[in-house]
């Protein structure tokens, strides 16, 4: 049982938001979350109770956003409850190579997207092996050998805590929609602007105002061949158990 007040006892003014959060579309849920985020203690309690109700379900971007709101509010009792329920984070993080993605999930919860981006590259290098870790970049042949399980974990983490805007699969969808045209992709995800490469790190957008597909910065992997291998990886076209 939660130690906090049930949403059923919340003020009647919040009933429409509760209903929207529990039964609306993803867009409606996210709108309700943002309104509840600024509604003080009652709003945060409603978000927490909703998280509890969805505890057994697969996590969605709405779950990710609710957790971010609780952490951003620095509501220590609720943060303790979240960590008690999900000590390793809301999203399971399977790895075929036993890699620990928990620190990445913590960065994404905190909306520390620049730090999360740097850590993502480190984790990709870990997947490639000690030599890649030492050089801190990847050969395209190393990317081709990445386990499906790990790439899906990385992608789901980025999607869960970005309103579904970020992740390799989002970049792939945009790339395919652009007819596999790299120049069009760079512009659409703001890695290039008016034909000029966006300068790292100061000109990149490290928050949720960034365009869809802006993060993580796969272009930092060194050249088109590496990102081509990533976006063509079997992870995006086959299911895993």
Which word captures the global form? globular
- Biggest beta sheet attributes: 2 strands, antiparallel
Nearest-integer average pLDDT: 92
Q: What structural class do you assign from the helix and strand content?
A: mainly alpha
Radius of gyration: 19 Å
Strand and helix order = HHHHHHHHHHHHEEH
Q: How much helix is in the residues?
A: 40-55%
CATH superfamily (homologous) name of the largest domain: Gun4-like
Describe the structure.
The chain is mainly alpha-helical. It has two domains: 7-85, Serine Threonine Protein Phosphatase 5, Tetratricopeptide repeat (Alpha Horseshoe); 111-236, Gun4-like (Arc Repressor Mutant, subunit A, Orthogonal Bundle), CATH 1.10.10.1770. Helix content is 54%, strand content 2%. It has 13 helices and two strands. The protein has a two-stranded antiparallel sheet with strand order 1-2. β1 and β2 (196-197) form a beta hairpin. α2 (26-37) packs antiparallel against α3 (40-53).
Keywords:
single chain, 241 residues, mainly alpha, Serine Threonine Protein Phosphatase 5, Tetratricopeptide repeat, Arc Repressor Mutant, subunit A, 2 domains, two-stranded antiparallel ribbon, 13 helices, 2 strands, 54% helix, globular, GUN4-like, tetrapyrrole binding, GUN4_N
Brief characterization of the structure:
With 241 residues, the protein is an all-alpha fold.
């Amino acid at each position: 049982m939660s130690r906090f007040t049930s949403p059923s006892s919340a003020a009647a003014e919040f009933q429409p938001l509760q209903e929207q959060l529990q039964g609306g579309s993803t867009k409606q849920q996210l709108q309700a979350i943002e309104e509840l985020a600024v509604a003080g203690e009652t709003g945060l309690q409603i978000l927490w109770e909703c998280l509890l109700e969805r505890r057994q379900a697969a996590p969605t971007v709405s779950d990710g956003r609710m957790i971010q709101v609780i952490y951003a509010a620095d509501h220590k009792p609720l943060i303790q409850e979240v960590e008690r329920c999900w000590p390793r984070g809301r999203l399971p993080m399977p790895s075929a190579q036993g890699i620990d993605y928990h620190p990445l999930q913590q960065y994404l919860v905190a909306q520390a997207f620049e730090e999360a981006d740097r850590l993502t590259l480190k984790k990709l290098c870990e997947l490639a092996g000690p030599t890649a870790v030492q050089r801190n970049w990847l050969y395209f042949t190393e990317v081709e050998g990445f386990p499906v399980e790990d790439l899906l974990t990385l992608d789901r983490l980025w999607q869960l805590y970005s309103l579904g805007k970020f992740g390799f699969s989002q970049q792939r969808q945009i790339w395919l929609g652009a007819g596999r045209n790299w120049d069009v992709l760079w512009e659409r995800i703001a890695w290039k602007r008016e034909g000029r490469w966006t300068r790292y790190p100061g000109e990149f957008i490290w928050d949720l105002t960034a365009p869809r597909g802006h993060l993580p910065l796969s272009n930092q992997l060194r050249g088109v061949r590496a990102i081509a291998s990533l976006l063509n990886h079997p992870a995006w076209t086959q299911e895993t158990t």
